[in-house]
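Worked Example 4.2. Consider the chain below.
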Amino acid sequence: MSNNANANANANANVNAETDTELRTVYYTTLASPLGELLLTADSSGALTSLSVPGQKGGRVVGEGWVRDPARFAEAERQLAAYFAGELKEFELELKPEGTEFRRRVWDALDDVPYGATTTYGDVAARIGASRAAVRAVGGAVGANPLLIVRPCHRVIGADGSLTGYAGGLERKVELLTLEGSL
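Applying the procedure from the previous section yields the following structure tokens:
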């Protein structure tokens, strides 16, 4: 290989390494909210990958190498502020949560539950074409939702109407359903 070809190969390897690093970079910001400080993460495209609340079961915490970039979350901040002010009923954000195909189907079904309404785990299972026996798996997927609030897992309740668990804490579920007029 000539020196020129070697230099080009090295330059391409450096560009590929930089691109790979960019694709793996986690961007984040924190926002004050009525539920406490929210932690939002996004990928390099700007798609929201998670929204966590303090003390959330399975919630994210800032990791080593993450890049704080509040400007990347300006639209999410605007929509969340409007939601908490009672002025927004449906989020219009690009979402890219990581999960199995089954979990993503469940999470997508959550988007169909309208503001001010609730649904049951059985109803979610039916929406995705899962059997009645899959209700537990649906519950697990709802509980693993990485995008609290914007992907409304708080609207899922027990078949008997009880306010079953919520990864962000039952008191926050009550607060969100009260805000939306469901309670």
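Residues 11-19 have pLDDT under 50 and may be disordered. The beta strands are 27-31, 38-42, 48-52, 67-68, 119-120, 156-157. Compare this with Example 4.1 before moving on.
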